[in-house]
Amino acid sequence: MATAGRDIKDIELAQQGIWRDGPPYELFKQMRGQCPIHWTDGFEQYPEEAGFWSVTSAEDVHAVSRDWQTYSSELGGVTAFAEIFPIELARGMFIGMDPPKHDRIKALFQRGFTPKRIADHEQRIRDIVNRVLDRLEGRDSCDLVADVAQPAVSRVIGSFMGLAEEEDAVWARIVNSALAPDDKDLSPEGIEGVLANEIPEMFERCRKMIEERQANPTEDLTSVLVHGEIDGEKLDETEIVMGFFLLMAAGNDSTKATFCSGMRALLEDPEQKRKLLEDPALIPSAVEEALRMFPAFAHFRRTATCDTELHGQKIREGEKVVMWYVSSNRDETRYEDPDHFDVTRNPEHQAFGAGGRHFCLGTALARLELKVLFEETLKRYPEISLAGQPVAAEALFLNQLKTLPVKLS
Fold first, then answer.
1. How far apart are CA 397 and CA 376, in angstroms?
2. Cis peptide upstream of residue 86 (ω within 30 degrees of 0)
3. Element (H or E) spanning 301, and its range?
4. Is the pTM of the predicted complex or chain greater than 0.90?
5. Paired residues of 53 in beta bridges
6. Which of 84-88, 232-236, 389-393 has the highest mean pLDDT?
7. With 50 as the cut, is the pLDDT of residue 377 above it?
C-alpha cells in the first residue's frame, strides 16, 4: 500500500493512487482507530481546492448528519471537491440546500416516493429487469455492469422521469461523467470537459423537456419539477434542471453500484451465494448487507457554519467536513467482522445517509430495485461466476465498479 509506514496524520486521503482500486478500506480502518477526525491538506488533481476534515466513525457521521445548523449543505456544496463546480448548481439541488428551503422542495417529491407508491411499481420494475436479462439469451458471458445493471436502472429511473428509452444511455453518460470527473474512463476530459460539455448538454436537454411539460403536463416526476410550487412560486430553471439531475444521478448510480458490488461479493464467496439460492427469502437481508458494505456514494460533505469541535478536534468556521460512508459502514465498534459479506446479517447502516434532514428520498425504490435485480439474476443464472478481474472506478465520490465480467452458466 502506498501509505505503508507513514504516520496516519500525514496521509493525504485525496491522493489519486490511494483510490486506484476503489475505497482504501484498510486506511479508513487505521483512521477510525488512530485519527477518527483526520485532516487532508488538499487535492493533487485540483490544486485550487481547499483541504478537508474526514469523519470516519459511524457515531461521528451520525452526529454531523443530524446537525445541519453547525454543518451546512448549502455553504460550499456536497462533495469534497465541490469548489470546482459552480456553487449555484450545487444549491439548485435540494441536497445542496439547508432547511427550511430544503424541506419544502424535498416535500414536492415525497408523494412520488412513498413506500406504497413504490411497491405498486414492483411488477413494472421486474418486467424491465427481465427484458434486460432476455437480451443475454444465447450468451455464455457478459459484463454485469454494462449489460445488466446500467440498462436496467437507467430504464427504471427514466420511466419515473418520463424519458424515452433511447435517451437512457445519454443520461447515463452525462451522470457518470459529472459524478466521477477524476476517473479517466467515466470522464475522459475531466472536470474541464464536464463544465464545457456535460453541463451545457444537460441544460439544453432539460430546457426541451421543460417546454414540453409546460405545454402538456404529464404524471411523471419531471412534470412535478416543472409545475411544483414553493410558497406560491414555481422553481426556477436551475432548480428544475438540477433537481432533475439529482434524481437521475441517484437513480442511475446508487442501485447499479450496490448491485454490482454485492454480486461480486457473492461470486467471490460461493457459500453466501448458495445460501441465497437455497433460501431466496434471505435476499432482503442480503440487500441491506450490500448497502452497508458497498454504499454507492463514498461520501457527502458539509461546511462548518461556526468554530466547533468534533471528537476532540477543533474545526474552524468555513472548513469542509466530509462524512465517509465507506468507512462508517465498516466501523468495527458497530459491526462484527465488518469486512465479511454476510447475507444473514440484515444490518442497520448509513448507505442512505445517517439520519437528519438529508436522509435519502429514494430508499424504498433502491431497496425494491436491488431485491428484484438479485432475485431475477440469481434465478435465471444460478451458476453465474466471475470471468475476469472487476475494475473499480478511481473516484473519491462514486463507489462503483466499471466492469464486472461474468460467466453466465
1. 29
2. no
3. strand 299-304
4. yes
5. 39, 321
6. 389-393
7. yes
Are 107 and 245 in contact, with CB atoms under 8 Å apart? no
9 burial level (CB within 10 Å; 0-12, 13-18, 19+):
exposed
Compute the distance between CA of residue 224 and CA of residue 250 in angstroms, rounded to an integer. Answer: 17
Percent of the chain whose predicted confidence (pLDDT) is above 90: 71
CB 72 within 8 Å of CB 306: no
Question: Distance (Å, rounded) from C-alpha 146 to C-alpha 401?
Answer: 10
- pLDDT tens-digit series, residues 177-227: 988 888 899 999 988 899 899 999 999 999 999 999 999 999 888 998 899
> Cα(351)–Cα(177) distance, rounded to whole angstroms?
22
Grid cell at residue 382: 444460478
What 3-state class would DSSP assign to 177?
helix
Could you report the per-residue pLDDT of 289-315, keeping only the tens digit for each?
999 999 999 999 999 999 999 999 999
Measured CA to CA, the distance from residue 317 to residue 76 in angstroms comes to 12
Query: Strand 141-143's sheet: what is its strand order?
Result: 141-143, 405-407, 385-386
Residue 297: DSSP 8-state = B
Residue 67: all three cell numbers together: 446537525
DSSP 231: T
Cβ count within 10 A of residue 191: 17
Share of the chain above pLDDT 70, in %: 98
| Average model confidence (pLDDT) across the chain | 92
Q: What is the CA radius of gyration of the chain?
A: 21
Helix (H, G, I), strand (E, B) or coil at 351: strand
- Say how many Å lie between the first and final Cα of the chain, rounded: 36
For cell 428509452, the residue is 165
Total count of residues recorded for the chain = 409
Helix (H, G, I), strand (E, B) or coil at 341: coil
Pairing state between β 52-55 and 320-324:
parallel
Residue 330 has pLDDT above 80, yes or no: yes
Query: Quick one: 100 exposed, middle or buried, by C-beta within 10 A (0-12, 13-18, 19+)?
Result: exposed
Using 50, 70 and 90 to split pLDDT, how confident is the model at 16? confident
- Please tell me whether residue 307 adopts helix, strand or coil conformation: coil
Q: What is the pLDDT of residue 1?
A: 45
Cell of residue 102, nine digits: 430544503
